[in-house]
Amino acid sequence: xxxxxxxxxxxxxxxxxxxxxxxxxxxxxxxxxxxxxxxxxxxxxxxxxxxxxxxxxxxxxxxxxxxxxxxxxxxxxxxxxxxxxxxxxxxxxxxxxxxxxxxxxxxxxxxxxxxxxxxxxxxxxx
Length: 126
Fold this sequence. Notes:
Largest sheet: 2 strands, parallel
CATH class: Alpha Beta
Structural class: alpha+beta
Number of domains: 1
Radius of gyration: 18 Å
């Protein structure tokens, strides 16, 4: 699916309440998990030791870090939505982030997005 492209913030405002679609799928690999562990220093065995995770974890194998799944947002979001005519986009943050279930290595994930509101702020919008 092609990204929904807006020609400026006024078009974004007009689309509030719209489901923007889904990104393509990404497969979570053990290499991704290991690289994320190296970057964050979180080498907990449930993530980086496939043999132990398979034998001892309640998940049946290694799982991705919750924040690894969250970090896929900046990669997947442009597949769903783009805004032209702006200087830049800045990650403002997240509200009410939860990780309701484990993501096993080998799982496929995609991002879905719904535009729920646009707030004006000094010098731009969020």
